[in-house]
Amino acid sequence: MEASKLTQRQDARLAGLIYLILVLTGIFSLMYVPSQIVSNADPATTVVNIKNSEMLFKLGMMANVVCFSCFLILPLVLYRLLSPVNKTHAVLMVALSVVSVPISLVNLLNKWSVLTLLGDSPYLSALDTSQLQAQVMLYLDYYNNGTQLASIFWGLWLFPFGYLVYKSGFLPKFFGVFLMLGCFGYVIEAVGSFFYAGYHDLAIASIISIPSSIGEIGICLWLLIVGTTLRKKTLTIG
């Protein structure tokens, strides 16, 4: 029994560490780097920023790779931790998360294409400045579209994950609730952005991601710092 509890706690802390790496690399690559480089309203500025901050752009790509690799490993560790709760939901959790990884990695080729366009290959002289800027923005749009597709699965996996956390008895139930709500936040944002170009200007866009942020960052830190707590069982005599 003690060995089982130790293994459970080790799995929880390992999952927390991987989750933390995923969160930090995700924030860096998906939020910080684009905020420093990309200007959707000004292609010329975007191209200049990429050229002047090429190392930052490349670091963002490497952070993408680390983030997506963690997203492949994390559900497998969580499966070990949570499959005793409900194996069917644990398998669904893994399947819905892992399916996004090849989409995300292939999508990263669009960023690589941007670097190729801004390289020094002789054939690029056939493109004038405006054509080059348009091509760069096109590949960045392709990348954003791919990210939007992958984000559907970033949301869907949270529902079985949240359900398992809620039912586990050794992790806080409220994290499970926020994770399940976070599932709908991701999906609503992806679908809303697809069908309505002005979605991000709506009030709902600024609040729809709050449950997933609370749930994911919360469970990440809980797993890393606390691990698991065992539910006390009531002994009935007679």
Walk me through what this model shows.
The protein has 238 residues and is an all-alpha fold. The protein has one domain. It has 11 helices and no strands. The chain is elongated. Mean pLDDT is 90; it is low at 232-238.
Q: Which terms summarize this structure?
A:
238 residues, mainly alpha, 79% helix, 0% strand, elongated, disordered C terminus
Task: Output the helix-strand order.
Answer: HHHHHHHHHHH
How many β-strands, per DSSP? 0
Span between termini: 24 Å
- Distinct helical segment count: 11
Based on CA inertia axes, which overall geometry fits? elongated
Which spans have pLDDT < 50 for at least 5 consecutive residues? Answer: 232-238
The average pLDDT is 90
Summarize the amount of helix as a percent range: over 70%
Number of domains: 1
SS content category: mainly alpha
Strand content: under 5%
What is Rg? 21 Å
- Main pleated sheet: none
Concise account of the structure shown:
By secondary structure, the chain is mostly helical. The protein has helices at residues 2-37, 43-52, 54-82, 87-98, 100-107, 109-117, 129-156, 158-168, 173-195, 203-207, 210-225.
